[in-house]
């Protein structure tokens, strides 16, 4: 029996607006083994870090507002709901942008693993990595809300993962998000492993059987995104090529 876990991409985003509470609730109800979200740190208002859930930094695609999520406080963001996305009319035409705590609260209702992408403007720039204080805040919230639950933290920014590393528990995976095959050479994979990274989260288009074997040989777990082909999803699962398949659908 396959041990591959299906992760709902930005929630069950083929049935509800991505990265919204309805999408997360639908993913839990549908029985996904994991639920993925994206988090940004909003502008601070003097009360410490505030983490908000949204894929794009700019709100134009989902909210119709040409402004960065990082330039608004949590209070200000409450005035600009999500107005676009799958079946938005079913939810009255608008749903609030969730905060990180609300995402975690939804997951408390089931056993799904949280898969949290930590966003940054310049993925390879250390200066844009998650601040130390924010890394501690994120993990504290995670473990307060979902104690002893396995978890996955992933990012395109290695420096963000390194800043999260001192704060994570043993059952939390750190996955390096990759869409360039040059980042998956053997020497680099071994460097990531030595530094404490536990896995690779790769775009499906860059992967081959040989590359997946190399990733596992270097001691890494593997997540593959975004897989919306049933044939590919089942292949990844049946051959145990991937520990996680991130998808807008679930394949049984």
Automatic annotation (TrEMBL):
PROSITE patterns: GP_PDE. Residues 4-252 form the GP-PDE domain. InterPro entries: GP_PDE_dom, PLC-like_Pdiesterase_TIM-brl. This is GP-PDE domain-containing protein. It comes from Anaerovorax odorimutans.
